[in-house]
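In response to reviewer comment 3 from the previous cycle, which asked for concrete evidence that the modeling workflow produces usable outputs, we include below a single protein chain processed end to end. The sequence was submitted unchanged, and the resulting structure tokens are shown without manual editing.
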Amino acid sequence: MHATRLGVAAIAAAAFSLLGTAHARAAEPIALAIDASQAATQNVLFAHETMPVKPGALTLYYPKWIPGEHMPVGPIQNLSGIVITGNGAVIPWRRDPRNMYAFELTVPHGVSSLDIAMTYLGATFGSYSSNRLASANMGTIIWDQTLLYPSTGTIQDTVFKPTLTLPGDDWKFATALTGAKRTGNTVTWDAVTLEHLIDSPLDMGVNYRRWDIWHDGDAHAYLNVFGDTPNDIDVSDKVVAHYGKLVREMIAMYGARHWRNYNFLLTVSDVIPGEGIEHHESSDDGGPADYLTNPKVLDRGADLLSHEFNHSWDGKYRMPVGLYQPNLQMPYDDSLLWVYEGMTQYYGNVMSWRDGLRKPAEYPDHIAAVYAYYDNEPGRKWRPLLDTAVSGPFLYNAPRQYVAERRSVDFYSEGELMWLKVDSIIREKTNNRESLDTFAREFFGGKTTGPIVKTYDRADVIAGLQKVLPYDWAGFFKKWVDEIAIHPPNGFTADGWKLVYTDKPSHWVPKSNVWYSLGINAFHGQVVDVRQGSPAWKAGLGVNTTIVAVDGRKFSDDLLYDAIENAKSSHQPIALLVAHTDAYRTISIDYDGGNRYPHLVRIPGTPDRLMDVIKPYTK
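The workflow returned the following structure tokens.
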């Protein structure tokens, strides 16, 4: 069913009428024990559940729609070795052929609890959390990968008692779960609802450092870093201080928090894939091994932790009603991801400047790069921004080839542009008395609480903005979200800046980027996209093609740059020798417009409101 403004209880009641008649004892927690002793060596987890039940028909679910990932990516391909017993006797089960995430069985009379054994095979596939388990010295535990839960309850009232066996005595751990008690390699935590269990991933490892980066009374924020080697976590005090400032900046803007303690969980590794998944009192983040020690790498990914941290307010405390379902099987309505992810993309980047990780002078060209890409995206001619959100469940894993023609999850970065435009309108019309921060503080801040969920819909967003500035916000979003928009919203001209193209690369658009000249998106000569209508498109260049030579010489990015510059004066076509599978051919690109890289430049005599966006609140 489509989740509108029904309350959670009403949604749950409607769902339960469809879910069968299994009987679980809600008052007793399900004991979940995960054995990770072989995670680092064989990339497997062994799970055992003791589940209180009553006799009769029972359906068990494996989590399918994963919060924060916005799509049905529960890695059921990796679930194996399922054996269910009661009073020592094996109980047969049958997978529902219409729902492969559902396991049906009958609990015999006299059986009051089930013992469920499972093995999670960490063979990586797909993306996001499905791709992560362990390296030789670190690992991640994503609880929803290793559990089954009864269909009778909701994620809000089904309770688990988690236990974890670590790979060794020298392994440490970090998680938002509370009440940790360790005996040898085994750790237990307080009983917790399924909602909060899957919202509390765990990082573990041999090489581990923890910093207390903020505190207020009994509330703390911690930076937890796990590395493959000790050098990977040899983080400077200066970098750590920026993350402390991030917490101060976020709280200063929102004016309140909705977590008791917050744990940044960060793996830095060239073995475990990167990650960025939000949780209410933590975030599951991952970067390359030199993420925190190489200034260039950190600069490129400086918004990783700030993006996921912002979700504690926007996405976890305030959640689109269509994303707050009573169980993990019901499809999400992703149509408000332009708020959930779009505004978080905006603030994730803004905070990476407010916390000092990035240099203020680089902000205008960041906006120029984002705007220019969407201003040169052929897919805008047929797909509105709203449809990229609704289509998120398949666009997340869509091929990289022809992404500009297809459009991708544009609600992130085009959403950033749109919210910059909202900020521009508010600042301009209130004479800088108010800004988007005002809306964020009132809508996502409020009063400090623990981890609770307060849902919203589109009308709530519009009403919240209306309180800050009376304006036709419904018409604004209709134009930029619902309708075909060939050009993205321009949020910088009214703030004293304009977009220009020059032959000088920028911090964000490198020399190798010829998208705005030839219309080619390539990595080391491997073509992944050709802009429809561009000179390269007209010349017949396609994807999955390798550029072998430029004007008779072996390809390099510098050589292609020079060829584009030379064509400006010679007015001669650029000759590319290209290979597609085992076929070679030469194509001739008729282009003499020179290299083009987007930049923002100041409009003389106008107020500069753009740079006000990234001014910090705290010292």
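The domain at 325-495 is CATH 1.10.390.10 (Neutral Protease; domain 2). We consider this sufficient to address the reviewer's concern, and the full set will be provided in the supplementary archive.
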